Amino acid sequence: MIVLLFIFLFFVVSTYAQSIVNKNTRLNVLYMLFFILALIAGSRGLEFSDTSAYTYAFQNEAPTLANYSILSKSMYYDESGFFLLAVLVKTFTSSPRVYLMTVALVTMFIMCINDKKYSIFPFVGLCVYVARFYMGRDFIQIRASLSYAILFWAIQYIYEKKMALYFLWVFIAYQFHHSAVVAIPLYFLCNWIDLKKWHIVVGLIIAFIIGGLYSDVVRMYVEDNASDLNISGDYVTGGTEAYVEGKGLLNPLIYFQCAILLLYTYYEELLAPQNKYYYVLRTGYFYSTLILIIFCTYAVLSGRTATIYATLEMAIIPSLLGITKKSDRSYAYFAIGVALTGIFYMNYLSVFK
Fold it and tell me: Which of 156, 54, 55, 145 is nearest to 106 (CA)?
């Protein structure tokens, strides 16, 4: 109950901070809040889920930079970029606490930049991130969290049609988590296909048909081609039932994302002029939702791949405030605070169960 009250107050204070008139004061408060989030994540218990594996690899496998070789790697993960980050920290200290704090600070720094850049209401964007992603990513999936932060940063180059720069950042993100390969098609989806409203509606209908009626076909294809698709065997066959088996079309997150996507699409004429990245954000979120539906028979596979661009909710959900009257904005802040508190608490319970 104390956690619930604290996070509710955090959300309400953060959303109301959006109304601070002085821009410099607003930015300083935003920086402070992201810094606090980094400190909390970096201060978690060393026995926390997955944390012991990361700290063990840091203490027992990571050399200093003087002894580092490009062939060096961890037995716990394959990503060379994340291992190199551990090496850089190890060069200065062997403290696992400093290591965790460094990862958290780097991730939150990038997410703060993303929030400022893509969200028209960054304090609301911050609250969306905390409610939807913070517990699962920055307390457990720290490699994925850093990788997805980089991919979020990179979408500006889709808008600017700078293919080389976009794929450079995708390559860098891939060095922190291999699921970043999912980002490759987004550039072409955004720049080669002029998505209309009806495309999105029809696309969702087709995805539901595939996820519902042809789920066995999807399952056979994924399991037969897992290695070629660079998918971990644990995601499709080798993990526990809870880890592998999804809820199918009963997954409530599917309908949450569909509702957000359709609302964001319906108000296109009103919202697009407010954010120059509107169409890139919408296409990325559409892509995320399609993945979530089509691969709904897998828990972690659908969740971890779809969540890459579900992160765009940091910019999408705050944008929906643009459809409200300014006179009603304070009520909207309060309502968002209540809704996000509930979402956060459900994620909190799932992490600490």
Answer: 145
